[in-house]
Design brief:
Elements (H helix, E strand, L loop, with lengths): L2 E9 L3 H12 L4 E4 L10 H4 L3 E3 L7 H12 L16 H11 L3 H8 L3 E7 L16 E6 L17 H4 L2 H14 L3 E3 L2 E8 L5 E8 L2 E13 L8 H7 L9 E2 L8 H8 L4 E2 L4 E13 L2 E5 L9 E4 L22 H4 L14 E6 H6 L5 H6 L9 H5 L4 E3 L2 H10 L9 H17 L20 E13 L2 E2 L6 E3 L5 E7 L15 H18 L6
Parallel strand pairs: 1-2, 1-9, 2-6, 9-20, 10-17
Antiparallel strand pairs: 3-5, 4-5, 7-8, 8-9, 11-18, 12-13, 12-17, 14-15, 15-17, 16-17, 19-20
Helix pairs in contact: 1-7, 1-16, 3-4, 14-15
Length: 528
């Protein structure tokens, strides 16, 4: 069996793994990254993301920043909250955040001079402690040096502008940082087992590279940064609320199958808030990966000329909440409503109802994101209609019948309810005020121009967030709250955002806690 050695072995080449590897290397460690995807099809969630991340202003109030972070991570400093989500670690997590997060933008810029950013938002929770003084900021990546080699598109000329200012830009910068340091990346290598010695220390990783078993010796430590479990049927069924397999959809990488969570559990790692998701409701199409529906980022929800209804044809929320930060990352909880009388989930799926005006205005999903899954979605939405992904009716009555025939509706759609929901919403548009749900006035636009369309929406989004329990040093803990020696973690597999989530949080914690995990793993005294 081939055998490789390094000081630090990192499992997963996304944002967290890359930042851990860079930080460990810069601390003097020899590093190997294991990545299960082949190099020519390497699309981690980092690359598929919007490219935004938190980078508070360096001159903000440090104590205020700690308070704001603590509220997001755990929340026990909110007077109305019954208990914190992770009170044992919230102080140390927020302390680390206050130290590292203001460095995030500069850390990335130091990797490549062609990498740029622009600010997109401030604190998404203005009523949280410290929000008014911490100078919170979220920036988005942009990259003037995006080349064909670093883009998923056949030519960078084909890359939409949004991708040059999104995950592709963020990923390209990290890739430059990895290459400039000559950090070894073993692609097409799936980690399968953590190796421990008689003292319980994690001293390596067993993997399969291509078709060949391989062993990696880690002289100092192992960092698990292999992402969530979005495309693992068993884990979804075990941890996600509601119908965890057929009732959910994710638009992140199908390579996220919970490998690191499973490996760590086998050596006694504890779990925390495993059902947490950065999610909303999104459309899904019949195509599958790992036997699970492919989700697509449904960007048109909350725009004029559409509404969202439940399986019975009733509106139940202001549609803009589904796509607005920060409610979009916790809206999935609204969709998980369980009717205790009928024993059904009436909002799984929900239905986006729209008219010809919206159909012609542009794609209802993020087309570039669909391309990562090899899915072509035309700018005018016509391919999706031809494929049957979008249902079409010349009248609302005809559309209701087609929804009723959809297998996931299970015959629940009530034609009268749907017609009345559209009529009532259109009246609100004429009045300029949504009297039912107070939808933002700027997003009001009637659903009145035939033909009419519908697409099912499921709880889901980019990724899961719950997983391995870890402290502020990013040491993986066992069920007795003791660190498993030489095992560290960062990213979605062990997200710090256990209470609420603000857009850009995933990439921000990839930088912050990836760096912390890499630095601490590199500081271990070699066992060998």
């Amino acid at each position: 069996m081939p055998r490789y050695e390094a000081d630090v072995v990192v499992v997963g080449f996304g944002g967290a793994g890359a930042c851990a590897a860079i930080e460990a290397h810069d601390a003097g460690a020899e590093v190997i990254i294991l990545e299960k995807q082949p190099e020519d099809r390497h699309y981690p969630n980092t690359r598929m993301s919007g490219g935004g991340y938190h980078s508070p202003e360096p001159d903000g109030d440090r104590e205020a920043l700690k308070a704001y972070a603590k509220a997001m991570f755990s929340g026990e400093n909110l007077p109305w909250k019954l208990e914190g989500e992770q009170p044992d670690f919230s102080d140390e997590l927020s302390e680390v955040w206050a130290e590292y997060a203001p460095q995030n933008e500069q850390f990335m810029r130091n990797l490549d001079s062609q990498y740029k950013t622009f600010k997109i938002s401030n604190a998404a929770f203005p009523d949280f402690p410290g929000a008014d003084r911490c100078k919170y900021a979220v920036v988005r990546s942009t990259y003037t040096g995006l080349t064909d080699e670093r883009s998923m598109f056949r030519s960078t000329k084909d890359a939409p502008k949004e991708e040059k200012e999104a995950g592709e830009a963020f990923y390209a910068c990290l890739l430059t940082g990895i290459r400039n340091r000559n950090i070894a990346v073993h692609f097409d290598t799936r980690a399968s087992e953590l190796v421990t010695n008689e003292r319980g220390e994690v001293i390596g990783v067993r993997a399969v590279r291509g078709e060949e078993p391989v062993e990696y010796v880690a002289r100092r430590g192992v960092v698990l940064a292999s992402g969530g479990y979005e495309y693992n049927k068993a884990l979804r069924s075990a941890f996600l609320d509601g119908p965890g397999v057929e009732g959910w959809a994710f638009y992140g990488t199908s390579a996220n199958t919970g490998d690191g969570i499973i490996m760590a559990m086998k050596i006694g790692a504890a779990l925390t808030k495993v059902g947490k998701v950065a999610g909303r409701i999104i459309c899904a199409i019949p195509e599958r990966r790992n036997g699970l529906k492919i989700g697509l980022n449904t960007s048109a929800v909350g725009k004029p000329h559409e509404i969202v209804v439940d399986n019975h044809g009733r509106r139940y929320a202001a549609e803009r909440r589904i796509t607005k930060d920060p409610s979009r990352y916790i809206f999935y909880k609204e969709a998980l409503h369980f009717d205790t009388l009928t024993l059904t989930y009436p909002r799984i799926p929900s239905w986006m109802i729209f008219d010809e005006t919206l159909r012609k205005s542009g794609p209802i999903v993020r087309v570039a994101a669909a391309a990562y899954h090899g899915i072509h979605w035309s700018e005018d939405n016509l391919t999706a209609i031809e494929n049957g992904w979008i249902l079409k009716g010349d009248t609302l009555e005809e559309l209701a019948e087609k929804i009723r025939q959809h297998p996931d509706n299970r015959g629940f759609m009530d034609t009268a309810n749907l017609v009345e929901s559209v009529r009532r919403y259109n009246e609100f548009c004429r009045q300029g005020k949504d009297l039912d749900f107070n939808r933002e006035e700027s997003t009001l636009g009637p659903v009145e121009t035939p033909p009419f369309y519908a697409i099912p929406l499921y709880p889901g989004g980019p990724n899961t967030k719950g997983g391995l329990r870890a402290n502020g040093k990013r040491q993986v803990l066992d069920w007795d709250m003791k660190p498993i020696p030489r095992l560290y973690t960062a990213g979605e597999i062990s997200s710090a955002f256990q209470f609420v989530y603000q857009g850009g949080g995933n990439l921000a914690e990839c930088i912050v806690f990836g760096r912390v995990a890499g630095k601490n793993a590199a500081s271990e005294t070699p066992w060998k």
